[in-house]
Design a protein that fits this description.
Blueprint (H helix, E strand, L loop, with lengths): L4 E6 L3 H13 L2 E6 L5 H16 L5 E4 L10 E4 L15 H18 L4 E4 L4 H12 L6 E3 L2 H16 L6 E2 L2 E2 L7 E2 L5 E2 L2 E2 L6 H12 L1 H9 L5 H15 L4 E10 L5 E12 L2 E5 L6 H18 L5
Parallel strand pairs: 1-2, 1-4, 2-3, 4-5, 5-6
Antiparallel strand pairs: 7-10, 8-9, 10-11, 12-13, 13-14
Helix pairs in contact: 1-2, 1-8, 3-4, 4-9, 5-6
């Protein structure tokens, strides 16, 4: 491999492969795609490297079944785990994915002790706790991708509802990555105009509900979890870290008193730079949003309580 920066994506399924491809196309780092299924990551990597000839990107993509090739990675994205199937709650995933994420984290820590770890595996908030406990790393280097995806869904619905460009929709979704997430309507604007000036409360509430159940809607349509938007969202986080962009993005971070939440991973706006989370931002919430965030935190605590450690 070259002397470029290196990013590893663990899990060669739909989300991992989409993330790996977006990173390769961004053209700043070599990418290692790891999966336990023999030949799967190698085949996808070969396909991506041949796509480079069409689109003109230079990074080399390596497929691997082990972690030797990942050594010295700047960032590791963990997408490994069982996806949700129809009728399955996020809580049902906890026990199975706790073991998978725990074993992956051990391998990652051994191969890349200075990396930043982004968790994508579900149930997301609980899996962040697993990765942090197993790695022993400081909280700024272990966090999760959820809020960017949830916010993207809310932004899409708002753009359709208002007829405005999705580029001009600014919003934020906080809290746990599940039905209890909290779209912050009070901070939502379209080209700087507050959403409440453009759309009725009834329509806003419908969009909030659709956002909260956004993952389930896609599972019901496809029979499995989404992958294009989640893969791109994880890649956006990697961009901000490796390129030190200092983007302010909603991520699942470990709180120690912020928003009145202590000792819990939950979605909040953070600034992402070269070492991971530079800062956690506290935004003004109205009364209903504050109560909703408290409920969301309690729901996350319940799932975390299912963990074995």
């Amino acid at each position: 491999m070259s002397e470029r920066r290196k990013v590893t994506v663990v899990g060669g399924g739909n989300v991992g492969a989409t993330c790996a491809l977006e990173l390769a196309r961004a053209d700043y780092a070599d990418v290692v795609l790891v999966d336990i299924v023999e030949n799967l990551p190698q085949g996808k990597a070969l396909d991506m490297n041949q796509m480079a000839a069409v689109l003109g990107f230079e990074p080399y993509v390596v497929g691997a079944n082990g972690y030797d090739e990942t050594a010295g990675s700047d960032v590791v994205v963990v997408t490994a785990g069982k996806p949700r199937s129809p009728g399955m709650s996020r809580d049902d995933l906890v026990t199975t994915n706790e073991q998978i994420v725990g074993s992956v984290t051990k391998e990652v820590v051994a191969a890349s002790p200075d990396a930043v770890l982004i968790v994508v595996s579900n149930p997301l908030d609980a899996m962040c706790h697993v990765a942090r406990n197993v790695s022993g790393w400081e909280k700024r280097r272990v966090f999760g991708m959820a809020g960017i995806l949830d916010t993207a869904r809310f932004r899409a619905f708002i753009a359709w509802e208002t007829g405005a460009s999705i580029k001009d929709v600014q919003t934020l979704v906080l809290g746990g990555h599940g039905d209890q997430m909290v779209p912050v309507v009070s901070a939502t604007t379209v080209g700087g105009v507050p959403l409440r000036k453009l759309v009725s409360e009834e329509r806003i509430e419908a969009m909030v509900q659709r956002t909260a159940k956004g993952g389930g809607e896609i599972v019901n349509l496809l029979g499995t979890s989404a992958w294009y938007a989640p893969g791109a969202a994880a890649a956006q986080m990697v961009d901000s870290i490796v390129l030190d962009e200092k983007r302010v993005l909603p991520c699942t971070a470990y709180l120690e008193g912020e928003y009145g939440v202590d000792g819990l991973y939950i979605g909040v706006p953070v600034r992402l730079g070269a070492g991971g989370i530079d800062e956690i931002y506290e935004v003004e919430l109205d009364g209903a949003e504050r109560e909703a965030l408290d409920r969301s935190a309690e729901a996350v605590r319940e799932v975390v309580g299912v963990l074995s450690s």
